[in-house]
Amino acid sequence: MRFKHWTAVVASCLLLAGSVSVVWAEVRLPAVISRNMVLQRDRPVPVWGWAEPGERVTVSIAGQSASAKAADDGHWQVVLPKLRATTDRAGLKMVVRGSSGGSVTVENVLVGDVWLCTGPSNIRWPVKRSNNARQEIPAADYPQIRFFTVEPKTAETPRADCDGRWVSCSPGTVGDFSAIGYYFARRLHKELDVPIGVLQSFWGGSRIEAWTSRKSLEAEPALKPILDWWDESVANFDPAKAEAIHRKQLESWRRAAAAAKSAGRRPPRKPQPLGELRSSPHRPANLYNGMIVPLVPYRLRGIISYQGLGNLFVVRHARILLPTMIRDWRAAWGQPELPFGMVQPAPYPCSHLVGNPEAYSRLREAQLLTLKTVANTGIAATMDLGDLEEVHFTNKQEVARRMALWALARVYERQLVYSGPMYESMTVEGDRIRIRFTHTGSGLITEDGKPPSHFTIAGAEGKFHPATAAIAGDTVVVHCDRVPRPAAVRFAWEDDAIPNLRNREGLPASLFRTDELEIPAKGQD
Fold first, then answer.
1. Domain boundaries of the chain, sorted by first residue
2. Does the N terminus or the C terminus of the chain have fewer Cβ atoms within 10 A?
3. CATH number given to 19-224+280-418
4. What is the residue-level pLDDT of the chain in tens, covering all 525 positions?
5. Distances in Å between the alpha carbon of 245 and those of 148, 256, 279?
6. 223 CB burial (10 A radius; 0-12, 13-18, 19+)
């Protein structure tokens, strides 16, 4: 009996040792590679994870497989051959096996197109708070549309993984999805008849530099003042002083809120405490490290983004920051031509926040300059949308429709009008200036049948005056009696301008100025 007992103990120990070995050699996948995911069709597909160093890992799906050996740090990555879009609603199974016997099975995998949806609060704005939510939500039965939401988290150094899970679109889940992301995905799904996956990575009030890697920011000399300010502020941060400043801000806010209430106006936003700057979501690279790096190199078809108000405070750098971020992300994903769509922020009175009446216009202009200098980019103009009383307007359906028009035309090569009129060139004709546009569609019109609004004109001295404008074919002729020798024209160059010019397809003209600065060379501002 003692011998048998001893044998049982030894067997138990061996079993326990084997179990520990399996756990130690367990194959692990990042959160984004998980149940219900959508993989990119018709492109090689990277799959990665972690295992015991030296472990050989094999990934299999839909009759395809690929293998790789885990590096010294345990990281491994394979690249699967191109996969065709799935039509079976049940989905596929991906099996990941380690050479020591550990394995992971990922179920209900679809293959279609994957888009990253990112930016601040206006693109985060949920379906349940968009127009006609009571009708939209019950109709949202689209199991082949899937969303993965990155849990908000900042990081000083790149994170290997994030928190999040893939969720199928249904009336029970759609309410919390990005409204722009959902309506965009729905349009593509209906037009292309393939599954659509949306990676959501948002932070309200976020700035471009926070979404960009430190390395790329440092490579641009013109951005050095931003980095220097943050480095100095982090090094000298004093929690007690920050708390005292916040108390003073609260006192001022209470007085302003009381005055606004007495006058029947909307009170200003309550100031938030100044947290530890080291982990601030506005600090350069902190959102990139925490909320973008964990998604790389998940294969994408494209990116749609929204520009918020955060960069009003460094607007003179916006024209360099935006293309820097786009190139940075393309390099990170190893997709140098990755399509990048931008929502042009809607009219809203905000430049007074930073004491610069041109800040908002220049912020939106930075997108237009990016469109000229960075290939495979697009803009969905919203000059006719928005709510002058609320920065978070609710008509996200139309924003998403315009973004989808760009994607269908430029990414999927459909023949359709996808943009409103964009400034192309000007010609001085005596005491008038003729403006030429691209994207006139089937012709220029005004929404209300009146002459085009919100044009101003200036002579060589640069003083702008309100102008009259008239449509002449695919051009607009601008004139002002006070400017006999005109030199420049501006259109909708105010925060809250809602102009009436558009093409017959109903897409609005974008703001512009003919006196814009030269597009800066790399490293200049």
1. 19-224+280-418, 422-513
2. N
3. 3.40.50.1110
4. 443 444 443 344 433 333 333 334 589 999 999 999 999 999 999 999 999 999 999 999 999 999 999 999 999 999 999 999 998 878 999 999 999 999 999 999 999 999 999 999 999 999 999 999 999 999 999 999 999 999 999 999 999 999 999 999 999 999 999 999 999 999 999 999 999 999 999 999 999 999 999 999 999 999 999 999 999 999 998 888 888 888 888 898 899 889 888 888 778 778 877 778 999 999 999 999 999 999 999 999 999 999 888 899 889 899 999 999 999 999 999 999 999 999 999 999 988 788 889 999 999 999 999 999 999 999 999 999 978 888 899 999 999 999 999 999 999 999 999 999 999 999 999 999 999 999 999 999 999 999 999 999 999 999 999 999 999 999 999 999 999 999 999 999 999 999 999 999 999 999 999 997 544 444 444
5. 38, 17, 19
6. buried
86 and 92 in contact (C-beta within 8 Å)? Answer: yes
Contact 98, 55 (CB under 8 A): yes
| CA-wise closest residue to 186 among 210, 170, 172 | 170
- State how beta strands 432-438 and 422-429 pair: antiparallel
Cβ count near 278 (within 10 Å) = 14
